[in-house]
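Prompt: Have a read of the protein record below and flag anything odd:
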Amino acid sequence: MKSAILLSILLLTGLFGCQPVSEEGTDKNERQKAVVNMYVDSCWNKHKLLSIHELMTKDFTRNLNGITVANGQKEFEAYIKNFIRAFPTMKIKIDTMIEKDRQVVTTWTFEGTNTGEFAEYLPTGKKAKVSGVSLFRFNEEGKIIREDTYYNELYLLQQLGYTLNPPNLK
């Protein structure tokens, strides 16, 4: 009798306790991951900036280390062009990718040689490699509405030969 009750409980738990994952949700999540992969590969690695208009909303925002660096597609295009000018052979590799709801988190590694002007810095010819984290948020249509990126900018600049000087306290 006890084994029949236990078997019934196990069967009921197996039938009703494990709900299948929604294919629609899985497909949507996979689409969001595919959009992030296309964004990194097209915009950053292949310098195909027209992809910005396909992958991002018009009011897309990019924040870097908590500071807004681009509002809208045009500003973002100019932002990427600054990196392309400074590191024309750069490559960004996505190391890990995790999705939840309308968000995708990636860890990534950037590698490049500084052969062009970088913001106000002259080219150094030095190689740099940094890792970082990006959080992407999507709208209902599956376009990227916001990217929050975090990496050690000081470490990047140090690899290019720049140093911090202590403040003059006199």
About this structure: Residues 56 and 143 are 5 Å apart (CA to CA). The first strand starts at residue 56 and ends at 64. Residues 1-24 have pLDDT under 50 and may be disordered.
